[in-house]
Amino acid sequence: MKKTVLALGALMCVCSFNMNAQKKGAQKEAQPEGYKFTTVVSLPATPVKNQASTGTCWCFATTSFMESELLRKGKGEYDLSEMFIVRQKYMNQLNDNFLRRGHGNVGQGSLSHTWINAFKQVGIVPEQVYTGIAYDSPTHNHGELASVVQGIADMSVKMKKRSPQFNQIVDGVFDAYLGKLPEKFTYQGKEYTPKSFAASLDLNMDDYVEITSFSHKPFYQQMTIEVTDNWEGERQYNVPIDELIEVMDYALEHGYTLCWDGDVSEKGFSHANGVAINPQVQALEDYSTTDRARFEGLTAPQRLDAVYKFDRPYPEINVTQEIRQEGYESFVTTDDHLMHITGIVKDQNGTKYYITKNSWGTDRNTMGGYLNMSESYVRAKVIYVMLHKDAVPAALRQKLGF
Questions:
Q1: Interacting residues of 164 by C-beta distance below 8 A, sequence separation 6+
Q2: pTM, full prediction
Q3: I need a surface site. Which of 13, 85, 313, 359 has the fewest CB within 10 A?
Q4: If we measure between CA atoms, which residue out of 168, 185, 209 comes closest to residue 124?
Q5: CA separation (Å) from 268 to 96, 275, 296, 380?
Q6: Torsion over CA of 141, 265, 333 and 389, rounded to 10 degrees?
Q7: Residue 312 φ then ψ, to 5°
């Protein structure tokens, strides 16, 4: 009897062990695959910064881009002041808005060429010389400043003139929030003015071009993108989307980074998960057995919501010129955000993504503030890119006339 009990106990232990093992095995199999990226191109960039509570992504992205340009040119690593440029941008906006009788844009947003225009006007300084935080905050916060700027803009238009005190008032506001502008400063043992420091960087602002892709205007000509942040009315070179992607790839493969402006309001854009994807809604029968069980009874939009789990790569939309144009003209694709593209990776299925440096700090995802945008997402959501003209293939440069 004792032997029988022992044998039965041993059998139960074995069964229990096998069942637990099966459970563990099933749990192991159910673990999400995740994204497995292989680096194709990775170009040098300076540390990620944090625009914090401001709408100044345009400046952070373009500053980061210019810092990478300095690295590419062998000038070393620089930390340039975003807020020095932002201040001049506000000054330009106030003037533009007044002359437009209040129909200009004095908001926080802008585009890459704004950086270039301000740099040409006033130069640049290192971050340590002008941090742009003269108020009680450890990080940038332009909520109150933006309201004050709007109030100044509205009052001058309402009065139909700028008083003799106007410039003094404006300077006082920016001094209070961002700090007084340095006339001279010492950097690494040398004395500079903002303009002489800019000259020392050897960055030719005429070397940079913006390229877009929209079919409502002729290709291979310049057009003005119709977005609010293009308040300066600058023109972009217009090419088919396939060629824009070719330009991006050629640039990165030849050592040039680029600024990317586009829409980040889509469900597929997940900074927290470190990816931006553009999955297609497949017919139920086209999914795997596991996914069919998961999606049974769901509508196509509900299936798309279920896909956005960012647990593994999914098939993505083949974005044509017509698809991206429809997104633009239906106001689905909007001008939301500027970032800095520094390389290319591929996932385990061979899908191409662009390594993207964001300006939301380093602690909001596990990638240190970077994310990877799929080619499909970029094709659908890019508004324009800015890059060095030498980063454009010679044949296209000739066709565009620069």
A1: none
A2: 0.90
A3: 13
A4: 185
A5: 36, 8, 22, 11
A6: 60
A7: -175, 165
Q: For position 254, what pLDDT does the model report?
A: 98
Adjacent-strand bridge partners of 353: 345, 374
Low-confidence stretches of the chain (pLDDT < 50) are 1-19, 21, 23, 25-27, 29
- Fill in the DSSP letter of residue 362: S
Please give the Cα distance from 229 to 57 (Å, whole number).
12
Report the SS3 class of residue 334: coil
Pairing of strands 352-357, 370-374: antiparallel
Pick from 194, 160, 190, 203: nearest CA to 73: 203
Long-range CB contacts (within 8 A, 24+) of 265-272: 265/334, 265/336, 266/377, 266/381, 267/304, 267/305, 267/308, 268/308, 268/377, 269/373, 269/377, 269/381, 270/308, 270/310, 270/371, 271/358, 271/360, 271/364, 271/365, 271/371, 272/364, 272/365
Predicted local confidence at residue 4, as pLDDT: 43
Q: Looking at the chain, how many residues does it have?
A: 402
- Residue 304 has what pLDDT? 76
| Cβ contact 376:278 at 8 Å | yes
Residue at token pair 């299925």: 349
Of 281, 319, 315, the closest CA to residue 301 belongs to 281
Q: Which of 234, 262, 261, 255 is nearest to 388 (CA)?
A: 255
Are residues 257 and 43 in contact, defined by beta-carbon separation less than 8 angstroms?
yes
Beta bridge partners of 270: 275
CA distances from 24 to 17, 19, 30, 290, 293 (A): 10, 9, 10, 18, 21
The per-residue pLDDT for 30 is 56
Q: What is the DSSP string of 43-105?
A: ---PPP-B--BSS-HHHHHHHHHHHHHHHHTT-----B-HHHHHHHHHHHHHHHHHHTTT-S-
Q: Identify the burial level of 174 via C-beta atoms within 10 angstroms of its C-beta, where 0-12 means exposed, 13-18 middle and 19 or more buried.
A: buried
Query: How many whole angstroms separate alpha carbon 350 and alpha carbon 348?
Result: 6
Name the nearest CA neighbour of 38 among 320, 264, 344, 331: 344
| pLDDT on residue 20 | 53
Q: CA 321 to CA 355: how far, in whole Å?
A: 23
Exposed, middle or buried: residue 28 (CB in 10 Å: 0-12, 13-18, 19+)?
exposed
